[in-house]
Amino acid sequence: MERIPVIEIFGPTIQGEGMVIGQKTMFVRTAGCDYRCRWCDSSFTWDGSAKHEIKQMTAEAIWQQMKQLGGDRFNHVTISGGNPALLKGLRALISLLKEHNMRIGLETQGSVWQDWFYDIDDLTISPKPPSSNMETNFATLDTMMERLTAHRGHVSLKVVVFDDEDFVYAQHVHERYPTVPFYVQVGNDDIHEADDVALRLKLLQKLEWLVDKVVQSKEMNNVRVLPQLHTLLWGNRRGV
Ligand SMILES: C[S@@+](CC[C@H](N)C(=O)[O-])C[C@H]1O[C@@H](n2cnc3c(N)ncnc32)[C@H](O)[C@@H]1O
Ligand SMILES: Nc1nc2[nH]cc(C(=O)O)c2c(=O)[nH]1
Ligand code: SF4
Ligand SMILES: [Mg+2]
């Protein structure tokens, strides 16, 4: 059976971001990313710092670990990374989770397509704004969004915003795919801050700034503004 590189499995917790924010869920985080975002809050998945934590796991072993952690206290699983879309072999896990009547969410940046995207219930595509130092390939993204919107699945776009330039980028993405539910998310500039109270205050100020930007923009009448709820609650800790 094909193995999946897993760096952490945690939960049950709540989905802290995007289209199903608040949903109780288990998380599976895969290792490896084709991007290197300047502000990545999960850089341990790709920078080698947690290399020793990567386990090559079968779908069944992943499921067993989730059951061990969560028992019967979950029916939703979120797959994140790194970029889980690099892994063709995730199909086996997705099939197994379906057999167990799990609802499945997945987080990816929209750089790589997989046919198993069609089987994800809550799919978040999160293209990266200029502050990340990454370049969006809009030809790839156009094809992806065309396929996904022709299909009945539950898909959304989520752009993290750190500054005015990112906001312009977010507007552009929303205008390009106007029928896709669109979320802007507060960027966390202080991913190494250990003082939760100070972090919360800063993030709430940034949320207020972002809400104001949306309120002032006639291009952003149909978007939703969200914080990272898990960061407000638990700071920069891993595994929550
Ligand atoms: C860690 S990524 C993993 C999945 C995939 N690579 C992606 O970027 O969509 C999950 C989500 O966290 C967001 N994210 C990463 N670092 C962040 C930060 N410092 N502040 C706010 N959101 C962040 C990403 O934009 C993405 O939407
Ligand atoms: N609670 C919680 N919600 C999340 N939503 C997206 C996350 C991610 O890192 O992909 C994440 C995470 O790490 N924790
Ligand atoms: S695409 Fe996602 S995991 Fe990869 S570097 Fe960017 S935020 Fe991090
Ligand atoms: Mg995260």
Automatic annotation (TrEMBL):
Cofactor note text: Binds 1 [4Fe-4S] cluster. The cluster is coordinated with 3 cysteines and an exchangeable S-adenosyl-L-methionine.
Positions bound to S-adenosyl-L-methionine: 39-41, 82, 126-128
Protein name: 7-carboxy-7-deazaguanine synthase
InterPro entries: 7-CO-7-deazaguanine_synth-like (IPR024924), Aldolase_TIM (IPR013785), Deazaguanine_synth (IPR017742), rSAM (IPR007197), rSAM_sf (IPR058240)
Binding site for substrate: 14-16, 29, 80
EC numbers, comma separated: 4.3.99.3
Protein species of origin: Anoxybacillus suryakundensis
Pfam families: Radical_SAM (PF04055)
Pathway(s) per entry: Purine metabolism; 7-cyano-7-deazaguanine biosynthesis
Enzyme class at the top of the EC tree: lyase
Required cofactor(s): [4Fe-4S] cluster; S-adenosyl-L-methionine; Mg(2+)
Positions with a binding annotation for Mg(2+): 42
Subunit note: Homodimer.
KW Nuclease (keyword) present: no
Residues that hold [4Fe-4S] cluster according to the record: 33, 37, 40
A GO biological-process term: tRNA queuosine(34) biosynthetic process
Entry function: Catalyzes the complex heterocyclic radical-mediated conversion of 6-carboxy-5,6,7,8-tetrahydropterin (CPH4) to 7-carboxy-7-deazaguanine (CDG), a step common to the biosynthetic pathways of all 7-deazapurine-containing compounds.
PANTHER family xref list: 7-CARBOXY-7-DEAZAGUANINE SYNTHASE (PTHR42836:SF1)
GO molecular function terms noted in the UniProt entry: 4 iron, 4 sulfur cluster binding; carbon-nitrogen lyase activity; magnesium ion binding; S-adenosyl-L-methionine binding
